[in-house]
Design goal:
Length: 606
């Protein structure tokens, strides 16, 4: 839209608050904005020299303008927020939900279970969160398990099933971790009271739970049930200990939300903290791409509104560094100058500064576009899936192979914080094994690697992946045991075809969801150790150390041989394949040549 075209519609735009929508020639909404004075705001796009490239591009794409008048600027903010969420225009800042964050769900079912999940299903269940770290979720669930007896089984505890006596109490009942609703030892009303205590714990209201337990303890003491009173006392001490480890600012603050914003040339950084009864129960920092010449208070308003909704905030006051709009006009907006509230705001600024520094550091080191937070979530997911005692921030993966039944070699790659650490990659010539023995070769390289790390007093990885079958995993385990490292690192095997993960001694493997971030990370590590190993083989060939048998087949060159070895690992494996299997990798004509070669070789040997 040119200035001349805009001048024709200018008289129709009122000097009133409201929202405006810009449409492209395809009749798509490309931008939504709000204004205290619609005519002045919209005119600013056409009546001044615009320096920002993205804003100039937006103006060049505008084909039509629509506006909606509202009663107040606050109503304009509400309408703008609603339109952005609905249409997600390309030039507006859109805060997308991160589906990978963990939640704690109170399942909609008779005698509801409480457990961790990353999938929010609209089935009427109650989801509490999201939480920014898996460790905090585990800590909260363990706190609930130790202090509030709930069922963990998946039995269908309908009234009819219980009355028919279909179920018997399990070990959890005898350990005191469940009150036995499956056999009618606990009614639904009492169970709902316990669930209410769970909600208080998960939302940070530890004081209400402690108060309830003290009342229960006093009842037992009055009835001379001192053993039961002592059990309740220990639970109270456990909760008080947890409460003391929370970041307590000032108990008198009760429920408030805190948000701040920092900015650089390309991004905004918004830190949000939820404070319940004086304790910080949530803290999260967002990185938001700049689209146009957005004002800090507009971005902070949008982010704060989305985050309060996402975290199900019940705060009646928000603490911010500058004026913002909030959805609920009853919420008080405070810009503190001193005191406890100013200290809270300073804490939020410090968190945002640390986050921004980490992002810049990663960009400088070319560590990729993923934030530290998102990478750690993937590692936490892997930890959860494999039930590891520590987050696997240091992972190493081994693979060995040979050519023509000779010259066995091995490779090892290292990943730190989910990213490859190339300087720590290692390749190995097998030294102590006579002939071809994949098991003994794996045992040798694992022993050599960790013997050296022990001698040089280097930190050990949390997770070691052996790319191979159970035999190779068992061989690696022998070396770990010989070095006295049992229990100091997790050792797993990775099946070559199914990409299943198995532990020493386990009959059933762990199968990660195919498209999960944790599975993609494992596949990336596996592919990287294959690539590094093949590169090593190629270097050896170029030095004339050995000749690849595949390259001796008429019509098969180095490129085709490398493709086959990358896919099937060894000449021995390739010699056993069908023509159809070979065709999938190198095409029909070359597959026929390779297949005929090995068939003829087999006949000659027989």
């Amino acid at each position: 839209m040119t200035k001349e075209e805009f001048s024709k519609i200018l008289p129709s735009i009122p000097h009133q608050p409201g929202c405006y929508k810009y449409f492209s020639k395809e009749n798509q909404i490309i931008y939504v904005g709000k204004a205290k004075d619609l005519r002045k705001r919209v005119s600013s796009y056409f009546n001044k020299n615009i320096e920002n490239f993205k804003t100039r591009k937006l103006v060049g794409l505008i084909s039509a303008i629509e506006f909606t008048v509202t009663e107040s600027e606050h109503d304009a903010f509400l309408l703008e927020n609603s339109l952005i969420k609905h249409y997600q225009p390309r030039f507006n800042i859109v805060l997308k939900d991160d589906k990978s964050y963990p939640f704690i769900v109170i399942k909609k079912e008779p005698f509801p279970r409480v457990f961790f999940t990353r999938r929010v299903i609209r089935d009427g269940s109650e989801y509490i969160g999201p939480f920014t770290g898996l460790m905090r979720v585990r800590e909260l669930l363990e706190l609930v398990r130790q202090n509030i007896p709930l069922r963990t089984c998946s039995l269908n505890l309908t009234e009819s099933n219980i009355s028919k006596g279909k179920f018997k109490v399990c070990l959890e009942y005898h350990l005191g971790n469940c009150n036995g609703p499956c056999q009618g030892f606990q009614n639904e009303a009492d169970y709902k009271e316990k669930l209410q205590l769970v909600r208080h714990v998960l939302k940070g209201n530890i004081g209400d739970v402690i108060k309830s337990l003290k009342e229960e303890m006093n009842r037992h003491a009055a009835a001379l049930e001192f053993e039961k009173a002592q059990i309740i006392k220990k639970k109270i001490e456990s909760l008080q200990n947890y409460q003391s480890r929370s970041v307590v600012v000032n108990p008198r603050l009760e429920n408030v939300d805190v948000a701040c914003i920092l900015t650089d040339d390309t991004h905004f950084y918004v830190n949000y903290m939820m404070v319940t009864n004086g304790s910080v129960v949530h803290s999260n920092t967002l990185q938001i791409d700049k689209k146009l010449d957005e004002e800090d208070n507009d971005v902070l308003s949008l982010a704060l509104d989305n985050l309060m909704e996402k975290y199900q905030s019940i705060a009646r006051e928000v603490i911010v560094p500058l004026p913002v709009n909030v959805t609920d006009p009853a919420i008080k907006v405070t810009i503190p100058k001193a005191g406890d509230k100013k200290q809270l705001l300073d804490m939020a600024v410090k968190n945002a500064q640390i986050f921004m520094h980490e992002i810049r550091k990663k960009a400088t080191l070319l560590l990729g576009e993923k934030t530290r937070e998102s990478t750690m979530l993937i590692l936490e997911e892997l930890q959860e899936a494999l039930q590891l005692s520590e987050i696997p921030v240091h992972i190493e993966c081994f693979d060995n192979s040979n050519f023509q039944g000779s010259y066995p070699v091995a490779a090892m790659v290292c990943f730190r914080n989910g990213l490859s650490s190339n300087k720590e990659y290692r390749h190995f010539h097998i030294k102590t094994v006579e002939g071809i023995n994949d098991f003994a070769s794996m045992s040798e390289v694992v022993y050599r690697r960790y013997k050296r790390m022990l001698d040089e007093k280097e930190s050990l990885p949390q997770l070691v992946i052996i790319d191979g079958g159970k035999g190779q995993l068992g061989a690696a385990l022998e070396s770990i045991e010989k070095l006295g490292l049992t229990g100091r690192m997790a050792l797993v095997g990775l099946a070559k075809k199914e990409e299943s993960i198995f532990f020493p001694g386990d009959s059933e493997p762990v199968q990660l969801p195919y498209d999960s971030p944790a599975h993609l990370l494992v596949r990336r590590i596996r592919d990287e150790v294959h690539r590094f190993g093949i590169t090593f083989h190629r270097q050896i060939r170029s030095k004339g150390t050995f000749k690849n048998e595949l390259e001796e087949i008429p019509g098969i060159g180095e490129k085709t041989a490398t493709e086959l070895l990358t896919a099937f690992r060894s000449v021995k494996n390739i010699s056993t394949l069908t023509e159809r299997e070979l065709t999938k990798v190198i095409g029909a004509s070359k597959a026929r040549v390779v297949f005929d070669y090995f068939q003829q070789k087999l006949k000659t040997q027989n």
